[in-house]
Amino acid sequence: MTLLERFLQYIHFMTTSDEASATCPSSSGQLDLGHYLVQELQQIGLLQVKMDANGYVYGMLPATPGDEANPAIGFIAHMDTSPDFSGENPKPQILENYDGEDVLLKGSGAVLKVSEFPELKNWKGRTLITTDGTTLLGADDKAGIAEIVTAMEMLVRANQDSVQIHHGEIWVCFTPDEEIGRGTEHFDLNLFPATFAYTVDGGDEREIASENFNAATAIFEIKGKSVHPGDAKGIMKNAALMAAEIAMALPKNETPAMTEGREGFYHLVQMEGDVSSAKLVYIVRDHDQKQFAIRCGYLQKLAEIFNSKYGGTAENPAVLIRLKHSYRNMRPVLEKHPEILERARRAILNAGLEPVDSLIRGGTDGALLSYQGLPCPNLGTGGYGFHGPFEHISVEGMETVVQIILNIVKC
Prior knowledge:
CATH class of the largest domain: Alpha Beta
Keywords: Aminopeptidase, Hydrolase, Metal-binding, Metalloprotease, Protease, Zinc
Helix content: 25-40%
Shape: globular
Number of strands: 18
Radius of gyration: 23 Å
Order of helices and strands: HHEEEEEEEHEEEEHEEHEHHEHEEEH
Number of helices: 9
GO molecular function, one term: tripeptide aminopeptidase activity
CATH superfamily of the largest domain: Zn peptidases
Cofactor: Zn(2+)
Largest sheet: 8 strands, mixed
Distance between the termini: 27 Å
Number of domains: 2
């Protein structure tokens, strides 16, 4: 199976994660893909292949003879796709010998514009894969899975053909529910005894990401008082209007659409309610730990101010906030392991590219794993426009990532 065929096979599994679900994985399609991957890894020749009760898929490629003393390296990608946009029944558009121009997404009539995704102008002549505009593509992170599996297959075949590529023990894991912040909740390090690992879950194939956001979810719960509007004066407290007022109190220039680089933000992801009750759900992000703490404190203070304004008490609040921390910036951990980043830089250089040290304006399973004792920077997949209908990737970009993985494991 070619890399492209493998990728197209994976994306047709419906694996959208569901934050409202209490199960792990949060959607049954992830189990379907997991079962398929178990069979594929076994067919390729990996050992200790299993899918555990929570849907995590593990496998191991033994070290080549004489290389057993080399450190065990791991590669990780996630099976779920983002609930931000439909992942059901994708219809990928495959453009061979892409002309470097804007692309019509034929299912919706939307246009993938070079002006908005400038990397496209450098992809002339490549085989481009886009959505048809009605779903996301699933390259986040099925491209990462396809790249890891393809690299493992190439290592097995090379050694079978006596064109030996020397390497230490290699572990792979494909996780569920990364997109809803649960990708490592049941990750079993006893089934993944790597010394260090790389998540393959980023964008540009040249990138090495060793920094990510500190992250939390903030939920405002607002209690109103409903009476007939004809008799409402001095009595009614409209929770929906209260929610709107809270939303407008946050800094207008500190949203995702207004920030870049290391700039943090408040992102309103859900707003619902009526006169009686309302809810606002925010994600809070900042690369700097101190600034992140300030942001969380600001939201808590805002809840106190509006609770007082609308006559709430500590015992019977009109405005209540719940903060749930998601993950921390992995940079402090990875700074203690520069050799892991240097290995990735050499691998990218040996693939004929100039490495790009990048930061993630989001999260990664690697951030949580790094704090659990498994240093784990993030590599690119070659994909762009994740979480929506403008997601796209090139076959050549994926092939380059496969080569980078092979370069990383070579002794």
